[in-house]
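PROTEIN SPECIFICATION:
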Amino acid sequence: MSVLPSDIVIYGAAFMPETDGSTTGGSVDFTRRVAFYDISPAGSVDVISSSSSDTATKIAYSGRDPTGAIQNQTLTLAGQSWVTGSQPLERLLYAALSGASANGPVADPGGPPAVGDVALAAHSCVLPSGSATTDTNVRTAQTGSANHSGTTPALLKLQSGDGAAVSVGQIIWTKTGTGSNQLRQIIATAGYGTDVVVVNRDWTTVPDNTTTYKILQGMLFEISPNPVTAVIRMFSTSTADVPAGSQRTYYEKVFVVNNNTATALTGAQIEAANQTPTLPSAALLDLALTTALNDTGTIANRQTAPVSGIGSFITQPAFISVAPGQPAVRGIAECGRRTRCVATADLAGRRHALQGFGRSDDARHNHVNDGVRTDG
C-alpha cells in the first residue's frame, strides 16, 4: 500500500499559546489542525455540517475585521443547512467546535461533538461567484471522480475549466445529485489530469456527472481519520513592534503526520516551498527538525530557543534532509513576523512525530503563507 498525499496531515502540539510567557511545544494533538493556506473571507462566514444530526453542535471562531481588530462569534449548527454569521472579517485566525480542548486561544464552546465533517467558510464562494447559502448557481462535476486506488488518491473531476480556478486548501461542498452533502478539502490541483483535484480522503459516495458543487474558502473540521475540533493559524494573533522597535523571534511546533499506519514514508526532504505574500526584507522564516521521533519536548515560552533535541535551523526555502531511517513528508505551513515554525511528522507508519521548531522575525505585522513540502 502506498503513502498517498491525503495520508499526510499537519497537526498542532499540546501547547500552542498566543502569549509570550507560557510553555510551548509538547506532544502531538490529533484534534488540532494547523492551517497553512491563506483564508480571507472578505466578509462574514457561514457554517454547515455533512450530517443532518449536527443540530446542537457549536462553533466559536475568531478573525481580524477590516480595521485589523480581532473579533469573535459563536454559531450553533443546523445540520446540512447553512447557518450564516454576522461578523465581517478580513481573515479567519482560528476556530473551535464543541468538544475542543483548551489550548492557547482555543476553548470548548459547549454543545455536543459533531458527528459529520464541518465547514466554516466565507459567505462568498470561490466558484461560482455568489453566496454559499442563498445563490442557486452551482457547478456540475464531470465523469471521472474516484476513491483512492493503488498510488492514486481520491479525486474529483470538476466542471470543465474549473481546475485552473481552484487552489490547495479550498473546500468542496457537494450540493445535489450523486454524493450530495459531502465536504472535502482540495490538497492538490495538478498531476492527475485536466480539471481533476485531489481531496483529503475517500468519498462516502463517489460523485458523478449529476453532482453539483460549490468551491469555498475557509476551514474544514474533518471527522476522519482523526476527529478535528480546532483549526488554527500559527502565531495567529501576534503583532510586531512599531517601526524601529525590537526584533522578535518566535518558536512554534507542529507535527506532520503520516496517517498511513501500514506504510512508512522514507528518504524524504522537507522545505517551506513558497511564501505568499513574499516576506518583508527584514523577515526570515527558518525550519528545523527534532532529532527523535515522537518528540515531546517543550520550551519555557515561545521566545525561548530550544537548546537540545533539535537540528540546525535552515532559512527557507531550502530542503532539509530527513536522517536515514526516519521518514518524511509533504505539507504546508504558515507563520507571522519573523517567526520560526516547528515542523513535526509521523512518518514511520505509526503515530510518531518528526518535529522541528520554526523561527521568524519581522518588524511589521505580517501573516505569511508558507508551503512546507516534503519529497521522498
Remarks:
- Residues 325-376 have pLDDT under 50 and may be disordered.
- The chain has three domains: 19-29+238-375, 45-122, 139-216.
- The domain at 139-216 is CATH 2.40.10 (Thrombin, subunit H).
